[in-house]
Amino acid sequence: MIREIxxxxxxxxAALAALVFTSSAEAAEMAFFVKNLRKQAIAVELFSRDRExxxxxxxxxxxxxxxxxxSVPLSCNQGEHICYGAWVDGDDSVSAGVGPDNxxxxxxxxxxxxxxxxxxxxxVP
Length: 125
What we know:
Layout: H1 2-21, E1 27-36, E2 42-48, E3 54-55, E4 62-64, E5 69-77, E6 81-88, E7 91-97, E8 110-112, E9 118-123
Parallel strand pairs: 1-9
Antiparallel strand pairs: 1-5, 2-3, 2-4, 2-6, 6-7, 6-8
């Protein structure tokens, strides 16, 4: 009976250890500093390439007025690839990055999530 209890206890401890070591990716806080150098307002979304997550999410966008800038803090998974999509507010045919639907190819518009970092995005004419 004691041996059975020891075996069950060891199995539970092994299962707990497995859960601890297979937990989800470590969360990180980072920011994007977006500068709108265009003469039109720009809508921006950030897309994860590693999971189905969009910032700000819920069918909302970060709206950046002409000639202004905005700091966009976000919580992401350490090492996650995050790409930006930007377009002229009201005319998504004029876009940058991966575009409004995260469908455009882009080699220079993706960043890696790292704790306490800030990436700069310059939206030029």
